[in-house]
């Protein structure tokens, strides 16, 4: 619904380990939390597409840029915004 509060989360992905799996898990957890705590209808398809976008962006950040990777997720109105930033 327009004008609804913005829900957001920011994460720093660990320097070692399974970055892509970690990012996908964080995205799914964020959307599950929004569904459970705020009662918003988040479809399975929305979770899957968000995880795919997160995977691709984190993969590119790890492949082409050095340093840490950050993941910002934002839900406003009927859209999920995914921002991945690198060093």
Percent of residues in beta strands: 25-35%
Amino- and carboxy-terminal Cα gap? 35 Å
Secondary structure: helix percent:
40-55%
Low-confidence stretches: none
The whole-number mean of residue pLDDT values reads 86
Query: Shape, please?
Result: elongated
Order of helices and strands: EHHEE
- Main-sheet strand order equals 1-2-3
Structural class: alpha+beta
- Rg computed from alpha carbons, rounded to a whole number of angstroms: 13 Å
The number of helical segments is 2
Total number of strands:
3
Major beta-sheet overview:
3 strands, antiparallel
Overview features:
87 residues; alpha+beta; 3-stranded antiparallel β-sheet; elongated
List the helices and strands and how they pair.
Blueprint: E1 7-13, H1 19-38, H2 44-64, E2 69-76, E3 79-86
Antiparallel strand pairs: 1-2, 2-3
Helix pairs in contact: 1-2
Structural features, described:
This protein is an alpha+beta fold and 87 residues long. It has two helices and three strands. The chain has helices at 19-38, 44-64, and strands spanning 7-13, 69-76, 79-86. The protein has a three-stranded antiparallel β-sheet, covered by helices on one side.
Summarize the model shown.
The chain is an alpha+beta fold and 87 residues long. It contains two helices and three strands, in the order E-H-H-E-E. Helix 1 runs antiparallel to helix 2.
């Amino acid at each position: 619904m327009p004008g609804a509060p913005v829900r957001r989360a920011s994460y720093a992905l660990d320097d070692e380990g399974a970055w892509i799996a970690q990012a996908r898990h964080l995205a799914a957890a964020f959307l599950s939390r929004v569904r459970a705590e705020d009662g918003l209808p988040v479809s399975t398809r929305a979770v899957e597409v968000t995880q795919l976008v997160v995977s691709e962006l984190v993969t590119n950040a790890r492949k082409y840029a050095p340093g840490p990777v950050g993941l910002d997720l934002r839900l406003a109105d009927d859209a999920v915004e995914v921002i991945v930033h690198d060093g």
